[in-house]
From TrEMBL:
Annotated organism of origin: Staphylothermus marinus (strain ATCC 43588 / DSM 3639 / JCM 9404 / F1)
GO CC terms in record: cytosol
Keyword ATP-binding: yes
Residue ranges of every copy of the Helicase ATP-binding domain listed in the record: 27-220
Stated name of the protein: CRISPR-associated helicase, Cas3 family
Length: 577
């Protein structure tokens, strides 16, 4: 199986995939290069490359680290990698390593699926589960040797691993994550590691700036000439596209109007709608609205699903399983050329749907977002072969009422995306040749202004065994994350403080979403007991609160932030604003 062609063919056999000529071409390029970027359409099967990559590494004595910017992506892919190992008779082949999951401590398994946040810490020797020891060494003066040198394991494992970064475009969202990516390219090049970057939407400006860091990056872009069958199938899809519509307080009514119109016109194939919001609050509000007026739409209440980032892990898993069940029913019906009009659902979601959830829709309704995010979302629209007709609707609110951000996104990127879309008479989000113009007109060189000094500092941080103290200081100086401007922090609703398992009730949440009026206190561990530490947050400014929470979250006794709100299985964590 050491022949590269044989390796990728084995992946095809395990999953009963039909081989794609472009993926085989891309695979040859990946094997022949140390650092590669592969760009292919959403839903094209780029995971095949990651899976072949792990088998290649296994044969040649390397470990594999497959990194994802979102844990939902990781969780979706983990079962596929497990199946690959089982079908090939490989025991203990794969494990995960991310917040609360320690299957592959120090990345010891042959294949480790991890988040980019965890990788960014481990690559500099900061094993997340031992962060309290590092902090004690820094603040209390304990020797760093109290960790027994465990921090060296992560560094050493990375040196023995080849790395894949999936959905790389998500690392272009901020200069901080972009700097880390550039540093990783340098580290991979200097240590002769293979690094594979995958995405469907990488602007030319982004690639240009990354190649300034290392000119030897091999860029492999999807070629329509290599897969005319795929291109023909995608071009046959008929899309009822309407230019973006400005909405006001009537936005939920407008969305309902679109759903009702689509249901009427799609009665012969069934309504499968995906409605995507930019904030959790809006998604929950529309879900409530939809439930209130459920009689207007002929979709069973059981198949009206809300999904966002503020669910307990098991509850989120239940939603993903339900969506997967519906998706499998649809794929099976299409494959067997059966009637699909009884397979109906409405999924109300936030950005979590952009990656890691295999689902399709024939009605796609979304708030405006930067071009990259929009194309990723629309990868869940008419996704499967055989789906031929659908409605695409985009709304936006008056951008003048927003300043630096349009909700959670950069205002200027949203404005540029809107300016492009309103002149399009038609729009096909399925083929790079159709959406590349949009992406390249929206993103500019200055949007990816890599800080060379910062990149070099991160790259040198990796060198030397004695640098872990400097890594801790750098980690704290960067606000507790090498990747994100807004760190994720565990929170718990007041209503869950009496829960039998507090740890299962913790929900990761962006620190930017925490405001003084909703923060009650901090949950800490004293000995074997959990206690609530009061915090007079209402007298603090937002900036002051975030500074306190960042520092407090780094302390060894910290468990989570207690917030005003209730947790509901159906709606997730609902904050009292």
């Amino acid at each position: 199986m050491s022949n590269p062609e044989t390796i990728i063919d084995n992946v095809y056999k395990v999953f009963n995939y039909s081989g794609r000529d472009f993926l085989k071409h891309a695979w040859r390029e990946v094997v022949g290069s140390n650092i590669s970027i592969v760009e292919a359409p959403t839903g094209y099967g780029k995971t095949t490359l990651s899976q072949a990559f792990t088998l290649y590494n296994l044969i040649f004595g390397f470990k594999s680290v497959i990194s994802y910017p979102l844990r939902t992506l990781l969780e979706d892919q983990l079962n596929k990698f497990r199946m690959l190992g089982e079908k090939l008779g490989l025991k203990d082949f794969v494990g995960s390593r991310y917040m609360g999951h320690h299957e592959s401590y120090y990345y010891v398994k042959p294949v480790t699926l991890t988040t980019i946040d965890t990788l960014s810490m481990c690559i500099f020797g900061l094993e997340p589960s031992e962060l309290d020891r590092y902090l004690k060494a820094l603040y209390i003066g304990e020797s760093i040797t109290s960790t027994l040198g465990h921090y060296l394991f992560s560094k050493a494992t990375v040196l023995l691993s080849n790395i894949v970064l999936d959905e790389t475009h998500l690392l272009a969202d901020s200069i901080k994550s972009l700097n880390f990516l550039a540093a990783l390219v340098i580290i991979a090049h200097n240590n002769d590691l293979k690094l594979l970057l995958e995405s469907a939407t990488l602007p030319d400006a982004f690639i240009h700036e990354l190649k300034r860091v290392y000119s030897g990056i091999n860029v492999v872009k999807f070629s329509e000439d290599m897969d005319p069958e795929f291109v023909e199938e995608r071009e046959k899809k008929e899309i009822d596209y309407m230019k973006p519509v400005e909405v006001g307080e009537d936005k939920y009514e407008k969305i309902m109007e679109w759903l009702m119109e689509a249901e009427k016109n799609l009665s012969d194939q069934g309504l499968r709608a995906l409605v995507v919001f930019n904030t959790v609050r809006e998604a929950v509000e529309f879900y409530n609205y939809l439930k209130k007026y459920s009689g207007k739409i002929g979709v069973s209440n059981d198949n009206v699903i809300l999904i966002h980032s503020r669910y307990k892990e098991k509850d989120r898993g239940d939603r993903v399983d339900k969506i997967r069940e519906l998706s499998n029913m649809l794929k099976e019906a299409i494959k067997n050329k059966q009637d699909t009009k009884n397979i109906q659902y409405i999924i109300v979601a936030t950005q979590v749907i952009e990656a890691g959830v295999d689902v399709s829709s024939n009605v796609f309704i979304t708030d405006i977002a930067p071009a990259n995010s929009l194309i990723q979302r629309m990868g869940r629209f008419l996704r499967y072969p055989g789906e031929k007709y659908g409605y695409l609707r985009i709304w936006y609110e008056d951008l003048k009422q927003f300043k630096n951000k349009y909700k959670v996104y950069d205002h200027s990127l949203v404005q540029r995306t809107l300016d492009q879309l309103i002149v399009f008479k038609t729009f096909n989000p399925h083929l790079p040749s159709k959406y590349r113009e949009l992406i390249n007109n929206v993103y500019r060189i200055e949007d990816f202004a890599i800080n060379t000094s910062e990149v070099n500092d991160l790259a040198t941080l990796y060198l030397g065994l004695a640098h872990v103290k400097r890594a801790i200081e750098k980690f704290l100086d960067m606000g507790g994350s090498f990747i994100r401007d807004s760190i994720q922090i565990p929170v718990i609703a007041e209503s869950d403080l009496s829960s039998k398992n507090i740890y299962e009730s913790l929900i990761p949440m962006s620190i930017e979403a925490l405001k003084p009026q909703i923060v009650v206190g901090v949950l800490v561990k004293r000995g074997n007991e959990l206690e609530q530490e009061e915090l007079n947050a209402e007298g603090l400014s937002i900036k002051g609160l975030r500074t306190i929470l960042r520092r407090r979250s780094m302390m060894p006794d910290f468990i989570g932030v207690v917030v005003r709100g209730k947790y509901d299985y159906e709606k997730g964590l609902v904050l009292e604003v």
